[in-house]
Design goal:
The chain is of the alpha+beta class. The protein contains 4 helices and 8 strands; from the N terminus they run ββββββααββαα. It has a single domain (2-129), classed as PH-domain like, CATH 2.30.29. Helix 1 (50-57) packs across helix 2. The N and C termini lie far apart (60 Å).
Amino acid sequence: MAKINVHYASFPFSEINVFDGVLSIKTRMFQLLGETVTPAQFCRLEVASAERVNQICGEHGRSIAGEILTHKLEALAGSIVTGLSYETLFALTLHDGRTLIGTVETYAWYEMVEEMERLAGERERAALSRAGSAGRSRKSGEYSRNEEAFDALVRRVNAARHAGSLSDPDGF
């Protein structure tokens, strides 16, 4: 479990941790279990840039960007003394509108990104299966409107080729 060093949050919290790409937001001190936020609830997760920090934080963005840069210098000095430790600065927006800017160890960042990509792949496969089943009724064998339009276009192109009004450079 990695602890997120929060630089800005639009919601109250006392501690935020990440484990296997899932956030745990604790709102009170000494709270054992916090609110669980899965990657399915992430709207936007990205490596933060100065422009994105200013966009999220508004007029306070410059001071937060300065704090982040100071933190990075402290982290660099700490890594020189104690050994290398890599952190990633990220911006997270949830579907309910809450935003967060923080730093976390790089391995935890990759866990969050991999979990989001896995969920996106599952959503894409589900959408393709829904589109495939909606395209043709399995019981009646009827075509959808798109398939009918495509078949009509193919028939017109083939008729034009046979009539000689359409040149065919590939010889099909």
